[in-house]
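Reading group handout, session on sequence-to-structure problems. Before we discuss, look at one worked example. The prompt was deliberately terse, the way you'd type it at a terminal:

> structure Deoxyribose-phosphate aldolase

The input record follows.
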Amino acid sequence: MTLPALQQLLQDVGGVDAVGVEERVAKYATRSIKKESKVFGLKLAASMVDLTTLEGQDTPGKVASLCQKALHPHHLGETPRVAAVCVYPSMVRHAKPLVEGSGIKVASVATAFPSGQAPLATRLAEVRAAVQDGADEIDMVINRGAFLSGELNLVADEIAQVVEACGESTLKVILEVSELGTYDHIRAASFLAMRTIRPGDFIKTSTGKTSGNATLANNQVMLDAIRDHYLATGIEIGMKPAGGIKTAKQALHFLVAVKETLGDAWLTNSRYRFGASSLLNDLLRQLETQRTGSYQAPWSFTENAGSY
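And the output record:
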């Protein structure tokens, strides 16, 4: 396929009213969430975190620290455990036994994360290795160059082969929205991925390794695509914004977007995740503030192993 194929997909799925999207998400920040509703939202957000370390200096010891944070977010024990720990494929075998039986998933980035610039055989081998070592979830990156060049069959075929390599593991397809250029391209890429993956799989904004990551606006474009795909097919696709979400206040705004776009059925970590690490501590601080009435100092909480 060439560029006309991308133009055809854009026509097929419809364009995005950029001004309308940005006006809509600006209103999410005006919602007032207080008392019991705020505590509920903070705990819900904590339960949706994929606690992440993706650094070249990652070691088994650093991953063990991350897993302990996931299992015991705070010494008071009043915060739910996170949804998953997310690590490089080589670290899956170190993380898996540490969270076994806890309900916490082990997620692994794969397919030559974050660039995706490796031969397909290499990318698929990485997925299979991570799954063999125990990864419950795989976060893959699409071939953005192929997408922008209009080679849509190539992109879809590569996603399909990753789906097969995942076996029973959940797949999250990373669009890397900052490199797609426009809201229209984000919507089109969302549909291309959703038409290839399985019910219960996810689409994801970003790797967290580029200058532009998750925003309320590109999150909204993807939520709208998930809604429209669901209404057309009945297939439920999950969503994961990643990169740049660092505060509890931001997380609550994202949850308002989910509730108002997709409804309560998506307010669960089986359908919505946050790719983050520093976010968790701010959620913990805000929960303690709600419990004690006093704002907590940052050093009251252990540091996360990652900075995603």
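Points for discussion. First: The beta strands are 49-52, 84-87, 105-110, 137-141, 170-174, 202-204, 238-240, 274-276. Second: The CA atoms of residues 24 and 217 lie 9 Å apart.
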